[in-house]
Write a structure and sequence with these properties.
Blueprint lengths: L1 H11 L6 H23 L3 H27 L5
Helix pairs in contact: 1-2, 2-3
Length: 76
C-alpha cells in the first residue's frame, strides 16, 4: 500500500532538520499514493495509465532521495 510508504517517510523524517531534503522526500513520497488515487478516479483508461506512470516516476524519485538520505546518514 503506497499510502503506508508515505506515512513511513513522514514518521522517519519528523526529526530531520534539513528542511529542503525533508520537503523533497516527503513530497515525492506523498505524490505516489496521490497520483494512484487520482488515476483510479479518472474515467478513461489512458488517463488512468498516465497517472500510474506519474506515480511510478515519483516512486523512482523518492527511492533515489531515500538512497541519498541513507548514504549521508539522514535515514536509517
Amino acid at each position: 500500500m503506497s499510502y503506508k510508504l508515505s506515512c513511513s517517510i513522514y514518521l522517519n523524517t519528523k526529526e530531520l532538520k534539513d528542511w529542503g531534503f525533508k520537503d523533497q522526500l516527503t513530497s515525492s513520497g506523498l505524490s505516489v499514493p496521490s497520483n494512484i488515487a487520482e488515476g483510479i478516479e479518472r474515467q478513461g483508461v489512458k488517463e488512468q495509465i498516465q497517472f500510474l506512470y506519474i506515480a511510478k516516476a515519483s516512486l523512482a524519485e523518492m527511492m533515489t532521495q531515500a538512497m541519498i538520505g541513507r548514504e549521508i546518514s539522514y535515514l536509517d
